[in-house]
Amino acid sequence: MSAERIDLYFGLIDAVDTPQVYQTCLATLSSAERQRAACFVFEHHRRQYIFAHGLLRIALSNFMPDVEPSDWCFTANRYGRPFISAPTIQKRVYFSLSRTEGCVACAVSGCEAVGVDVELVRQRHSLFEIARGSFSPEEIDALRNLQPETLVDRFFDYWTLKEAYLKARSTGLNSSLDRFSILISSSHKIGVRFAPGAADDPRRWHFFKISPSPRHRLAVADGSGLTDGLPIVIQRWPYLKYNPRDETHFRREVDGHHDRTAPPNLSTTVLTNGEIPINREARGFRQTRER
C-alpha cells in the first residue's frame, strides 16, 4: 500500500454485525478500550464502538503488515485528535475515525491532513437553529434557497464536510465552524472559502462525499496540497465474505448523478474532487490482505 493515497473503510452495522466479525474486532482492543466499551449504557452504542475501533486497528495493520492489530497504542494531542504512540514504525501513518448510528468509518494515510466524518441523515425541526450556531452566513443563505426536499441532504453535506475538515486540521471543534464555508457547485464540485485572516489556503484542500446508505452521509477532507488531491481507495470490510445476494447498497456521486448501486467492498479510486468513478480493474472484489 502506498503512503500517497487514502484508504477508506466503512461499514453499515447491520451488514457487518456477525458473531465472527464482532469477536475478531473485540479481540484486537486494548484493555482500556474494552473498559470504555463496557461503560456504554446501550448495547448498540457498545457494538458501534467495538466495530469502529476494531476496524481501525485492522486497517492500520493492513497499512503496516508487520504490526498486529492488538499492538497499536494511541495518544491524543491537546485538541483530542488521536495519533499512534507505539510501536515505533519506519514510515508515517495517520488515521481518522468516525462512527454514528448504524455506520462506522476510518481513513488511513501517510498524509497527516486527512479527516473523515460519517453522520446519520435525519430530519430535525431545528436544522436552521443548529446551522446558525455552526455554519457560516454563506452556508446559511445557501440552505435558505433550497427546496424542502433537498434541505436535509445539503445540511448534512455541510456538516460532514466541515467536520472532516476540522479533523484533518487536528483542531476538532476548537476551531470556529463559521469561519469557513463549504462550497458545493451545481456540478457537485466541492471547495472551501475561509474568512479574512484565516491561516489556511483553500487551494490545498480537496473534498469528497458519498452515501454508504440512503440514511448516511460520509465525507473525506484531504489537505495534502497536491494539485489533484490524493487518490482514495475504498477498501473491503475485513473478515467479511462478499455475497452478491446479501449486499448492502450505497450511492456514489459521479459527475453530479447518483451512479447505480454497488457492493460496499468494491475497491474504488477517487480520481477528481468530489467524483468517485468505478475502478474497472477492481471488480474481482479481491481483498488486499487476508489476516
**Which blocks of ≥5 consecutive residues have pLDDT under 50?**
241-266, 277-291
Strand order of the largest sheet: 4-5-1-11-14
CATH domain fold name: Ribosomal Protein L22, Chain A
Q: Helical element count?
A: 7
Topology of this structure?
Blueprint: E1 6-12, H1 13-16, H2 19-28, H3 31-38, H4 43-63, E2 73-76, E3 82-86, E4 94-100, E5 103-109, E6 114-120, H5 127-134, H6 137-144, H7 148-169, E7 180-184, E8 190-194, E9 206-213, E10 216-222, E11 232-234, E12 253-254, E13 257-258, E14 269-270
Parallel strand pairs: 1-11
Antiparallel strand pairs: 1-5, 2-3, 4-5, 6-10, 7-8, 9-10, 11-14, 12-13
Helix pairs in contact: 2-4, 3-4
Concise overview:
The protein is an alpha+beta fold.
What does this structure look like?
28% of the residues lie in helices and 24% in strands. By secondary structure, the chain is an alpha+beta fold. The strands form 5 sheets. The protein has a 5-stranded mixed β-sheet with strand order 4-5-1-11-14. The longest helix is centred in the middle third of the chain and has 22 residues, at 148-169. The protein is globular and about 50 Å long. The protein starts with 5 loop residues before the first strand and ends in a 21-residue tail after the last strand.
Question: What descriptors fit this protein?
Answer:
single chain, 291 residues, Ribosomal Protein L22, Chain A, three-stranded antiparallel β-sheet, 7 helices, 14 strands, globular
